[in-house]
Write a structure and sequence with these properties.
This protein has about 300 residues and is of the alpha/beta class. Helices cover about 35% and strands about 20% of the residues. The strands form two sheets. Strands 1, 2, 3, 4, 5 and 6 form a six-stranded mixed sheet that branches. A four-stranded parallel sheet has the order 7-8-9-10. The chain starts with a strand and ends with a helix.
Length: about 300
């Protein structure tokens, strides 16, 4: 079905666009944006299209709410996932992040699966789930984030991980040691790189292949399932640098060429060139330099030593 949304204020940050114009849709897909001085895309056979006058209204991509309470399970008399989703879609929000302070708390695979099932049944918006930091939100023991990361949720289809964040919401983790561990876990799972997986005692090649960040090394990953070379690549990480602490004092050669580092972003390489760290420990203190970069740097230095 063809539609034209006319005279609305079209706002699209991805296109740096904030201008009045007309939007042409074919089967709910934007095929053309008509502005005062230019036209983006192409629209054919729209003579009989349904027209919606949006004068005085905003026309935007779906909005995202990072903090919602849908209260299910346990507090459905206040709200549930279906009614919350309906309210969100009526307000233009197509993605929300649901807080974990339900009854029971979203602190396990079972509760996560229940919440995600309800969101899929409602089938109105993307309900991304935030897990609790600690079990029962008691502030004593961290939840098993790795298991929750594995669950096939709406969140995982969007960002590759079963949960989108962790939070105690209205509570605080009073034990600073537990809170610090939670922050470290969140940092590792945020990027879900090879380095963060390798540090775990149960790590093996199969685990790495299952959880590795798809953008970590696209050239290698294209043949990840069948490449013996790839398995050798992983094995080197597992055997040589399982414990990062052993390498913190490794000295980085003064003339080291950071441009030779594989699978490291340009801005990260530029940071290393700018700060010129003396050893691995100093490198890890540089903004944007994470464990995955440190691992690659260690391997590169070890390879240089072997060649000499």
């Amino acid at each position: 079905m063809k539609k034209i949304i006319k005279n609305g204020l079209i706002i699209d940050p991805s296109q740096n666009l904030c201008e009045e114009g007309n939007l042409y849709l074919d089967d709910d897909k934007i095929v053309m944006i008509e502005l005062a001085d230019k036209t983006l895309g192409e629209a054919k056979d729209f003579e009989k299209a349904e027209t919606i006058n949006a004068k005085g209204l905003w026309v935007t991509p779906g909005l995202i709410d990072l903090h919602v309470h849908f209260r299910e399970p346990g507090l459905e008399y206040k709200e549930d996932i279906k009614s919350g989703s309906e309210a969100a879609i009526h307000g233009g929000f197509t993605t929300v992040c649901m807080m974990p302070n339900t009854k029971p708390v979203i602190d396990s695979v079972e509760t996560l699966e229940y919440v995600d099932k309800k969101a899929k049944e409602a089938n109105l918006i993307n309900v991304l789930t935030i897990a609790a930091i600690t079990k029962g939100q008691k502030g004593e023991e961290l939840c098993d984030f790795q298991k929750m990361m594995e669950v096939d949720t709406i969140t995982k289809k969007i960002n590759g991980k079963g949960i989108c964040a962790i939070s105690e919401d209205g509570r605080s983790v009073m034990n600073s040691k537990v809170m610090l561990e939670g922050i470290k876990e969140a940092k590792e799972f945020r990027t879900m790189t090879l380095a963060s997986i390798i540090k775990r005692p149960e790590c093996n090649i199969k685990t790495v292949l299952k959880f590795i960040d798809k953008d970590y090394n696209k050239n290698v990953l294209e043949n990840a399932e069948t490449s013996i070379k790839y398995e050798g690549y992983i094995s080197r990480y597992l055997n040589e640098i399982k414990d990062i602490e052993k390498y913190e004092n490794m000295i980085i050669p003064k003339d080291f060429d950071y441009s030779t580092l594989q699978s490291v972003k340009i801005d990260q390489i530029n940071k290393l060139k700018q700060f010129k760290p003396y050893n691995i420990s100093q490198a890890l203190r540089i903004p944007e330099i994470d464990m995955s970069v440190a691992h690659i740097l260690i391997l590169a230095i070890n390879n240089l030593k072997k060649k000499k």
